[in-house]
Design brief:
Blueprint: H1 14-27, H2 32-37, H3 41-53, H4 61-75, H5 78-90, H6 95-103, H7 109-123, H8 130-138, H9 143-166, H10 180-183
Helix pairs in contact: 4-5, 4-6, 4-7, 4-9, 7-8
């Protein structure tokens, strides 16, 4: 079976090479997940534009990383869990925090309402538990935030699915496995 592969810069189209150079300049490296998505310059460019636009939504950087960890855990993408564990720590979360975020058992009530709703939306394919939607609103989020949350879920689900299809080498420190002990 032919596998979706990590695209080298040498084999990339000119359009993809330009995008790769921009990623390297912004991130300091070319993560393997982007090298896989780069098999389609259109998909990579579209994804990066969409993802960058989400920074202007309802959620701050910490909340976005919390959502990305919950989504990646729920979708079973080891690559993205590892990448976002590193990024979450860069945004002020501890190692234990990242485990709690992934399990949607975070001590902050507002953030926990966000995480539980995130996981429910994924598990139920958009038909989230109504009590969790109510908790989300009671925590102080509004309708704009709910739409922005779905956008973040879509953003991360895209890379999760690519990561699961391609299984690229994880070029970040591997995240701890989530167990009942470290998720409590």
């Amino acid at each position: 079976m032919k596998k979706l592969s990590v695209l080298s810069k040498e084999k990339a189209s000119e359009q993809t090479k330009q995008i790769f150079e921009g990623i390297e300049k912004a991130v300091g490296m070319l993560p393997n997940i982007y090298s896989v998505i780069g098999n389609s310059a259109n998909a990579l460019g579209s994804y990066l534009t969409f993802s960058e636009a989400q920074k202007n939504g309802s959620f701050n950087a910490k909340e976005r990383e919390a959502v990305f960890l919950a989504v990646s855990e729920e979708n079973g993408c080891s690559y993205c869990v590892s990448a976002h564990t590193v990024i979450a720590k860069m945004n002020g979360f501890s190692e234990d925090d990242t485990l709690n975020l992934r399990s949607a058992e975070y001590p902050d009530q507002k953030l926990n309402a966000l995480l539980k709703l995130t996981k429910s939306i994924i598990k139920n394919r958009g038909n989230a538990d109504e009590n969790l939607i109510d908790s989300f609103y009671q925590a102080g989020y509004d309708e704009q935030a709910l739409v922005d949350l779905v956008a973040l879920i879509i953003d991360k689900t895209f890379t999760n699915y690519i990561g699961r299809l391609a299984k690229p080498e994880i070029d970040f420190p591997a995240a701890q496995k989530l167990t009942k002990e470290n998720a409590a």
